[in-house]
Write a structure and sequence with these properties.
Blueprint lengths: L7 H7 L25 H10 L11 H13 L4 E5 L2 H12 L5 E5 L4 H13 L3 E5 L5 H7 L4 E7 L11 H10 L4 E4 L17 E5 L13 E5 L5 H4 L4 H4 L17 H10 L9 H11 L2 H20 L4 E5 L9 H7 L7 E6 L2 H11 L4 E2 L9 E3 L11 H6 L6 E5 L5 H19 L1
Parallel strand pairs: 2-3, 2-4, 4-5, 5-6, 10-11
Antiparallel strand pairs: 1-7, 6-7, 8-9, 9-12, 11-12
Helix pairs in contact: 3-11, 4-10, 6-7, 14-16
């Protein structure tokens, strides 16, 4: 029976159901919790095959469009967008590791990721071994155990700008069918695409350079699509063996994309890491100008690093674009069109000089973030690396006078003028 004349409350809910359609050039925002099924069989098919869209936690057209965009930029087979960069790292690791497994990680990683490995995953009986000399493939090889399920590192490390020799480390992993997961947040695909050099999975904090404007949170996992069920079966039985009951593996049907399918269908939605479609839209918009922003930011960062290296109040500059950086040759092998725009430098005046610096800047913004269109500054020793011991901080190049810059898109002369006036004040304070 058709309701011929619905009453007020019904009209309020259903009157907009007959929607206009148009060929939007920008990605439309599907800001909806769920999607209407055509009929009984349509719903059944969706739950059986996963095709189409049923609920935004498991898939959304706006999110899917941005995932395709991300995969294309990183030269990947497919991508999964999640709610934050930390969610991306957790999802990637839980896609490949389970209780009783082991991970080998670079020591030079974001402190939030280090905490995830040491505190949260350790409680799930997933152990991590950390590598100090990430440039030595034998150091990675000797740390691998029979239960090692992933190698993890950052392409450009925060804070010392250590650059990963992706080809060398990924080769070590390939010997035992162990995937290399690379956090490519600081480099961005505009200057480095780790999958092209042998990495298996790339993760990002999309909140940073990809979105670019410091307005939304997001994260992404990009897979190379080369999962080998036969070669990696002993390392990833959950992807090839039968599922619950006597059902065949639901992921084997995805072939080389079995790993990313597992992340999409079993990890991200079940742990609730789904992003808002509105955030996905803004990330997609930001990525359209990624190349332009990164080019300008990298060019300005190199000029600023050169200027700081010559300043009498500056003890050292850890920017991989400078020939003085120990990884400069490695950077020249991997980075294209720039050296990034996040780096540290250390003031001779120690902590008092660093305090004066962050309290006196005018163009640079003092905040916890990076990859923004705005230029930012942070004191790692009392913020991002505060939970490290003094000895650990020293080993990572984080000293009392060390500051981290994230160079934005402002006029270079204004940035240099800001640095000049602050460092002149620092000189007076120290004197």
């Amino acid at each position: 029976m058709t309701v011929a004349h619905p009453r007020f409350a019904t009209r309020a809910v259903h009157a907009a159901r007959d929607r206009e359609t148009a060929a939007s050039r920008a990605t439309p925002i599907y800001l909806t919790a769920g999607f209407e099924f055509d009929d009984f069989d349509h719903a059944a098919d969706h739950f059986r095959t996963g095709a189409g869209f049923g609920y935004t936690r498991t898939g959304n057209p706006t999110v899917r469009a941005v995932e395709r965009q991300l995969a294309a930029l990183e030269s990947g087979a497919d991508a999964v967008l999640v709610a934050s960069g930390q969610a991306a790292v957790a999802t990637a690791l839980l896609t490949v590791a389970a209780a009783g497994d082991h991970i080998v990680s670079s020591t030079h990683i974001y402190e939030g990721t280090r905490g995830l490995l040491l505190d949260n995953l350790a409680r799930l009986d997933i152990e991590t071994t950390f590598i100090d000399d990430i440039a030595d493939p034998d150091a990675w090889r000797s740390a691998i155990r029979p239960n090692t399920r992933a190698l993890f590192a950052e392409s450009i490390a925060n804070a010392r700008n250590d650059v990963l020799d992706i080809r060398a480390v990924s080769t070590v992993g390939e010997e035992l069918a162990i995937p290399l997961i690379v956090d490519n947040t600081l480099a961005t695909p505009a200057i480095l695409r780790p999958l092209e050099h042998g990495a298996a999975i790339v993760v990002h904090s999309a909140s940073k350079f990809l979105a670019g404007h410091g307005s939304v949170l997001g994260g992404v996992i990009v897979d190379d699509g080369r999962f080998d069920a036969e070669g990696a079966g002993h390392n990833a039985p959950h992807l090839v063996l039968p599922g619950r009951g006597d059902a065949p593996s639901v992921f084997a049907r995805h072939g080389g994309r079995a790993r990313i399918a597992y992340a999409r269908e079993s990890v991200a939605p079940r742990f609730g890491a789904s992003p808002s479609p509105f955030n996905a839209f803004l990330i997609g918009q930001g990525m359209e100008t990624l190349g332009l922003r990164v080019e300008r930011q990298s060019r300005s960062a190199l000029q600023i690093a050169r200027w700081l290296e010559e300043h009498p109040e500056v003890e050292s500059v850890d920017y991989v674009g400078l020939p003085s950086h120990p990884d400069h040759a490695t950077a020249n092998r991997y980075l294209e069109g720039g050296f990034g725009s996040v780096f540290t430098f250390t003031l001779r005046g120690g902590l008092p000089a660093a305090r004066r610096f962050v309290e006196q800047v005018q163009v640079f913004t003092h905040m916890t973030h990076l990859g923004d269109v705005r230029s930012l500054v942070l004191h790692p020793g009392t913020t991002s690396h505060a939970q490290r011991t003094e000895q650990e901080r020293e080993g990572l190049g984080v000293r009392p006078g060390t500051l981290r810059l994230s160079v934005g898109i402002e006029d270079l002369d204004d940035l240099l003028s800001d640095l000049a006036q602050v460092l002149e004040g620092v000189r007076e304070t120290v004197a």
